[in-house]
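Interim report, section 4.2 (structural modelling).
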Amino acid sequence: MIRIAICDDEKTFIHRIYKSIEHYLKQNKMDFECSTFSSGEDFVLLKEKICDFDIVFLDVNMKELDGIEVGEIIRSYSEEIVIVFVTAFIKYAPAGYKCQAFRFILKEEGDMQEMIYECMDEFVKMKRLREQKRLYRFESLQAPIDLSKVLYIMSSGHNLYISTQDAIDEFSFRGRLDDLEEELSKYSFLRVHQSFLVNLSFAQSISNYKIYLKDGKDLPISKARFKKSKEAFIDYRGAW
Amino acid sequence: MMVLLESLAMMALELTAIILFFDIFEERREFPNRFAGYALFIGILLLDYYLINLLQLSFFPKVILLLLIGALTMCVFFRISVLKSLLLYAIVHTVFLLVDYLAVALMMKVFSMTYWQVTSHPNIIISMIRIAEKGMYILLAIWIGKIYFKQGDKKQRLISTKDWSKILVFLLLALMLIIGLTVNLDKFENPIQADGLLFLSTTLIGMAIVVFSLIYDLLKRERIMLEQKISQIQIRNQLKMYDALSQSYERQKRNAHEFKNKILCIRELSEQHEDERLKKYLHDILGKIEDEEEVFDTNHVVVNAIVNSKYREAKSKGIRFFFKFNDLSSLWLTDDDLIILLSNLINNAIESSEQCEHKEIKLKIQSGDDFVLSIQNTSPQKAMLSNGKYISSKQDKEEHGIGITNIIEVIEKYDGIFHIKNEEKQFLFSIIIPKP
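Predicted structure of the assembly:
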């Protein structure tokens, strides 16, 4: 079930955006729920209930509370909600991307529907991946692990140790990195060393034979894997 | 004692020269600390001395043993395979032998001695000369290194390794010629034959020097021509960009001017209650505004000018253009470099995606702890690689290849890293430039 919100002070645009979304989701046989709001103030009245939504289409230039401000308020409640700015004037763009906007869509005649389609396409893909990542099941572990909080997985002997953002070496179980390497690559995990599988979303930079993480830690990269690791890191930073 | 020291000194110089020579072509291995390297050097030196002087071996087994030990030694110091090391070592050694023969012949002539008298070095002067000669090897290695690299810059090689091997084979053949003629040198007591050898050696070395100089001059000229061509293309790109910028300014001026007229017209139509005409008029104006408006605003004048004009171009060709960016006002790259990067990257992307059914370009420019610039586009087929330069299926392959070379030059100027991911339908060029 996908929960969508559209916030725009012009009824015609709410209608057009809704039609495009409905068409796309019906075509792909997906369930959805859509709520509409005719002003920013109405939307932010929801407070924490904002988090119920998966994706919000925000008009940038509304009276009183404009889209960018609404975006910032949304972010104060959740980092995860996908924000799509819909606008007639893209001059607001830099501020918009500060709220980690997923897309910017121009209110133009023919283009808008195509852009909404592309946006929904990418959103659905990303949402699926996110859900798989959040509840990843390792074979020998009972509880699922949220991969998006895992910094890296280290192997020592026959055991694997998962290092997460909150605690270190919280989980350990029997296994081999060789088995996990390919499976986890689609969640941006990279095998930098015989004993280390790193989550690229926490990678800050790469230098000779080391990879630095955002929290200051660094992990070694084996010489044999260096070229591929560096390339994978650069590709990751360049990807959308 | 003197003999021992002298031998060791000569071998040390020779080994140093060989290492310098190898340095030109190959990468050194990293040693855990400097002393390990020096200790190894001395150890190998002593081993060589033992094998050459103390083991009683005949000529050929000795030569082969020396070659093997030398090649293996180089494998220790450099990242190189045994086979390649053998080949390179053989070539280096023969070059030095060539010089050696010349020196010996010279001394035979000058001091009126026989071959054996010279090489058994009873005389201190001769010993000094022979040591100095080994020093010459080092100078030779440095000189060749200079020619091989443009001003010591390892990346800009004037001659490729393949060409170099041809030159060295030429030297090898020259030496083989000399050896062939002088294989029984120790039997020559006759000063006339020594003269003959001297003459031959000198001529061959003279030839080699002339050939080297010629090649050097040719390469220099070629490099100058290439640089000129690159400059011309860069200037052309820049002119196009400045053109786009000035057009943008002109448009702004005109718009400001026409704005007042439009408002007057709207007021007129509204006062006349001409609703239908007013609606149509407003519709038309909106259309025009959208055409001329700056769609993206990154807070950076040059980036805006380039991306907006390229966006319009892409749109007119039916290419979907996505742009993800943040506030770029604090970008540290120069305007010229940004022009080179962006116009080349986007031009290539437009040319490529134009040829596809599904035309799409995704551009990402983000400035924060570092600077990320990436462009992703649909491509009709895998772009071809030739000599490290990308060539397109378009006619002006040369210009296209130079375009990518320019991009890479700019990236390296800022110590950036990049990767090109080239798959069947998608092309991704990602660049990361660290903060200075």
